[in-house]
Batch of 2 targets.
Target 1
Amino acid sequence: MNKAQELHNLGQSLWLDNITREILDHGTLSRYINEFAVTGLTSNPTIFDEAIGNTGAYDEGIRSKAKAGKSGEALFIELALEDLRRAADLFRPVFDATDGVDGWVSMEVSPLLADDTPGSIVAAARIHGQADRLNLYVKIPGTPKGISAIEESIFNGVPINVTLLFSREQYIAAAEAYLRGIERRVAEGRDPRVASVASLFVSRWDKAVADKVPPELRNRLGIAIGGRTYHAYRELLASPRWRKLAAAGARPQRLLWASTGTKDPAASDTMYIEALAAPDTIDTIPEKTLLAFADHGEIKGVMAEDGEDTEAVLASFAKAGVDIDALALQLQRDGALAFVKSWKELMTRIADKSNALAHAD
């Protein structure tokens, strides 16, 4: 049994932070499911931009859709959903065996909608309906404007992956949006079983402060933020508010670790995976990191639920001049802007490919 399978047995879901047509066509994803206990995956505009730009695997799909009059976002969504439906079908046995707890894939609404609450609500419902797969999450960023869209989408019965969370406070805002959506469904006598995950981004913290803190604090901030958020997650699941919903049949919104690839070349390539081992959570792992962890990773125990040790670490960062609250807001803003940049690059790439393929006929 390799370390990835051991981590799965510990109670943590391992999701691949990647999707390409090649890993579907070549059986790579199926192998990861069988060998490394991978039980889901996530996608984003950057992943699709690289996949479409670096291979010819999508050329025929782009050509045929362009000939049918599709362009821009509509063409991309069809292209992406073709891959995600195939992946969702591979994970469907896990989805069924866990009664919908695991076995999910994710598709993002346009990052251009980050400040458009009504537009995000409409787009989430449209994508989920078009996907035609029960085990597909729609990703909405947990920005201030996104929080209302998350609540309304949950109320509408759309499974949501809340993305771009960077702090305990941002996580709590997303969790409360989920709770409100479920509470409204219960009040109306509707099925409370609408799934959701809340994605906390980890490694970007350490990249942001790498040159601003003493050497002994390098690569410790992201994990500490994770520990603080995990404590809040456990507190929420023990709260009377949640227990009331659980008694009505609701499912927990699971905490998901995102951005878990090591950015510092001098640090261990499995650092975040080892530190974030925790039951009842999800770890989305870049392909390179998954292979590294299966090969030489170590499971050193599970995360503490009380968060005491992490608070001491965070106090050290405060003494070093790091304003954690301000940095969390900045990281979320920067993350939203980065997704917009990737989205625009993706739309340009699709337009260029559509044009080139049309002229090649």
Note: The mean pLDDT is 95.
Target 2
Amino acid sequence: MTLGSYHVDDSGQLIEDGRRTEEVYVPLAHTEGGLAASMQRGIAAVLASGSVQTFVLHDRMTRDSCFLFETTEEAVICAR
């Protein structure tokens, strides 16, 4: 996976500082077997069609509302 590192400048713009390639493992903790199978099928379809791009802004767990944004920049501004 190619990972990017980012920062937000003084005007609130998201700036990419650089990229690196790294293998990433995503641990999943649940007790629903059907969910694991569904996720496996979904990621297989994504990888068969090319790739996926994600952004990790904070490494944490939360149980809150979900907000959807048009751009990553809008999400970072809201998170501030």
Note: The mean pLDDT is 82.
